[in-house]
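Hey everyone, long-time lurker, first post.

I ran two proteins through the pipeline my lab uses and got sequence/structure pairs for each. Pasting them in order. The first:
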Amino acid sequence: MRYIVASAWPYSDFIPHLGTVLHLLSADVYSRYLRSLGNDVVFVTGSDEHGTPIELEARKRKVTPKELTDQVHGYMIKLFKEFNFEFSLFSRTESEVHKGFVKEFLLKIYEKGYIFPMEEELPYCLNDKMFLPDRYVIGTCPYCGYESAHGDQCDKCGRLLTPKDLINPKCALCGSTPVWRKTTNYFIDLTRVQDKLLNWLNNNNKLSDNVKNYSISWIKHGLKPRSITRDISWGIESPFPNTEGKTIYVWFDALLGYLSATKEYFLNLKNDENAWKEYWKNKETKSIYFIGKDNIPFHSIILPAMLLAAEEDYVLPWDINSTEYLMYEGQKFSKSRKIGVWLDEALKIAPAEYWRWALIRTRPEGGDSNFTWKEFVKIVNNELNDDIGNFIYRVLSLVKSKFNGIIPEPQKLENVDLDLNDKVTYYINEYKDSMDEVRLKKATDYILEIARLGNKYLNDRAPWDLYSKDLGLAKGVIYNSTNIIKDIALLLYPFMPSTSDTIWKQLGYNYSIKEIKFDDIINSKLKSGMKISNITPIFKKLPNDFLENIDKIIEKARDEANSERPNLLKEINIAK
């Protein structure tokens, strides 16, 4: 089966924080799982580099926007490598492939009559002497009354807006009331694809109810033409007639990045201009997008609308996996107020694999969730170290001390041992169901259940005592336990790939766990007679005084991370 796995493109204004990283991580976990099943997976995302926020910050620093985003993009690649992301391609909207693709794609839609010029009145700030992008107009939402809605979308009720919709609009930069000036922009006529969009939404059984119902309701309120061009200089130049000085609105630009990045990947891989079409124009391909709930309409309305308008049989989203908001100690992440943890800071505090597990364990799948340092300590010390790591180390230590490092042959098993195998099989099946349904946090519950089951089994059976009383039964218990370790390693792989490979090698395998197919190994048993390798504890607990000193730990991590950042990222402060 062919899959396109995509994650919302992180904006190149600063280092990603934990909430941004979560979407990338979710996509990485799922793509690793799909590959382990033998699927053909292209996993793409990249840096979203265009838009007024970056243009303004670059102007303030007296550098070009490209100089700024070059540093951000390069630094993100470094951090994502440390975080063990396995992209097919992490591209950028400044890629020449991307810029060319966007222009060509939108011109085709224009030639088919879906895009047209229209005069409009836009907010203009007399103080800042510029047309204000939608995001830089703030006012009251006409639908829910939220007083800090932006001109493109209300962050509270999720409705897509235009600056004209807002009540009491203000310039987000200086707070003054903008005036309205006429300009001509190009619009995409969403009404022409409205029926096709509804048909797709109604017949897509993979989409979650919240995505489907929200999108259908939004369409039934009536689609309006949406402006594609903007009166700003930083971005992809408009390819339409008489639009000198205008650029493509950043959202249309970035959404088409999923297609252009796939094209770029195959150009890099085998210099093939058309291989990407085998994925995007193949009915059997399944495409899935990992996003936050505030990005739903862009992926459930705008992206499929563009794909439909192209009239070239592009595959529409198979699934749009949106999460709720991840809070930080009860507050929203904020660069300006230094609320939250950014990726390079996080990597100074704990290993990347700990963060990968902890973020999935905090993943807001059914509602908003809250990252707390107290919960982080519990996840690392109790779940990783005590439940998983302790079981693995205890079993392998017994193999080493009692059986000279050789996994014994199961000479004798009793009903309790066979019952254990049945329970493990049950949890493995529940894990697979959860992964197939993209309930990643739920899947980790079953890994923990297996580890806890293993610890209880080891305590109850006490093979160290059986060793002198009934050697055959002791061998059976140890053999059963090493098989549980094998299963844990396989189940952990999408979430903690380096850790699972370490466990795999300690079991005695001389090849990477990445090379195996999940179903081939999960349904088989370890070969007795295998010699384990040198064993060491898999995890290390956070210090007892970690919570007591967390403020100092964060400050130290922030100082260390800041000292290693590129110059233009050391004190960056962009509103978005």
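...and the second, right after it:
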Amino acid sequence: MDPTLYPQITLFLETKRSYPKVKCSSWVSSKQIWSTKVTTTTTLKSAIAVLRDDGNLVLRDGSNSVESAWQSFDHPTHTWLPGAKLAYDNRTKKSQLLTSWRSKEDPAVGLFSFELHPFNNQYVSKWNSSQQYWTSGAWNGKMFDLVPEMRFVIDVSGQVQQLTWLETTKEWNLFWSQPRTQCEVYASCGAFGICSQSGLPFCNCLTGFNPRSESDWIQSDFSGGCVRKTDLQCRRNVEKLDFLMIAVKNLPPNQSVESGSAGECRTTCSNNCSCNAYSFVDNQCSIWDGDLLNLSLDDYSRKTIYIKVASKDLNHPKKSNLVMVGAIVGFVGGVVFALGLILVLIYRKTRISVGKTTMEGSLVVFDYKDLQTATKNFSDILGGGGFGCVFKGVLCDSSIVAVKKLESISQGEKQFRSEVSTIGIIQHVHLVRLRGFCAEGNNKLLVYDYMENSSLDTRLFHGKHLLNWETRYQIALGTARGLVYLHEKCRDCIIHCDIKPENILLDAEFCPKISDFGLAKLVGRDFGNVLTTIRGTRGYLAPEWLSGVAVTSKADVFSYGMMLFELVYGKRNAEQSEDSRSLFFPCLVANVLMVGGDILSLLDSRLKREASVEEVIKICKVACWCIQDEEDSRPSMSLVERILEGVLDVNMPPIPRSVSLFSLVCLQ
């Protein structure tokens, strides 16, 4: 509500013989803003409005403390409170809905809703009151199959969220949300918007497209989607068209199937004015005539879609007229040859000079243009995260490197050089070696050794080559040793702040090496820019990140514990099962440990139970200790190292409070 329009709001009770109302008006203009609009044939002798302690605004007869003529709990908006109703009214044949705000600043009714399905007794999330994209599961007599007890909010993002109150900070803490990732929400980025879980904002426009409303996008309202920068104006031959190729997690809905080869599929879409995109997957041609919804990036997918766009908006180099080129070449050919010879001599001299003078301690100071050449203009991307993207590069000596292009680094060049030089002297067998860096103006890059076997997440979740149990155990032990070095053996304790499978790299022998171990120091201790992205992978985030208290090395211990679960499971800790139920793997582990069940039943099914029972139990116990809610209850990484080495035994851990909330769901 805009305070400039309604500087003071007054809530008052208007009583008439048969229809008392609660009304909300502006004190300045006496303009009615809202009313209960209740009518009843019952005569109320002394109607009163009461705001109860549970948040329910009740209109009732003063002489009757039970019956109410109207209550706000019967008319929820975007938040459900304990005691409120969220049901289907058989009299009116309507569901009571939770509806999202239109944007974070606009409380008007948004596109997302949450309601009880009138026929199958389960709650569902919908887009535009029509497209269902999540369900709570059926009611089993005690609870819904897929949902623990919670306080709900249907967020502007379309996610159903559970908020818990932190008394220490007097703030609401986001504890749980469904769907698990933002990109699973139907049409979350609107038409021609692309969703990515690797950073914020989640939504961006495709190349060649702009937001339909810039102001809405600034307020995180992506529902309007994107529009082409250039109108194609079909059949007028005004603009030459081309196709943007992207790899997506799933092809968008509402396609039509055509016959023909890949080339014929492209031609069909080119010649069809209404065609917006085509795809040729599994020898099938698919055509999309309407808006493209649910586009989600996936670097590992083979599902490729080609989206029609104006050729000039793809930034293709323009082809010169052949006659003009011939004239220019003939006129300046001799000059070009001479200049080329001079430039070659200068370049060779510069390269020799670089080899002699660009050493700073044990690190090489690279020229930005050299790294641009080595990475083919930063085209071969290996991955990305909270600190920037990583590209594969080949140096002039033919050695292969990984080049990380940093984002949101505010330090000056001198300070950056000093910090990187400090990190550069940190050497350990389980830390990725930093070769050098580049610091030219706003361009800040780090050059690392290239890891032949990519990252742990690739091998666990996407790789074709299965990691056996022995390798997984050694990865757990090696990662622990690397963290011990950072926490306890460096001159200053280094807190990694983002331990997860994506940041554990594997060399040719599958020896684990922690990457990005110094970047938390580089971006500053407030972690302001990094935290927003870390929240994108909330599954590894220690509770203290969200409670506002000082973060210690025990935050890394928590993240390490969550990663241990995934080493055992072979999947993300929160996954959909084959019967579409939501599973939280740590609570399955806790339940099996409590009853002394079959621990190998929790193992990655691809391993076919081929693992040491003692080692699996040890890993699971250590993981449960690492994710305890209180920092003091978590072990140090040196203690974890000694346990995994077999020097110390590990006791049965208590079940963390956050896990126990999900345990009932796991037992169903």
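Reply from user beta_strand_b:
Welcome! Quick read of the second one: DSSP finds 15 helices and 36 strands in the chain. The two ends are 43 Å apart (CA to CA).
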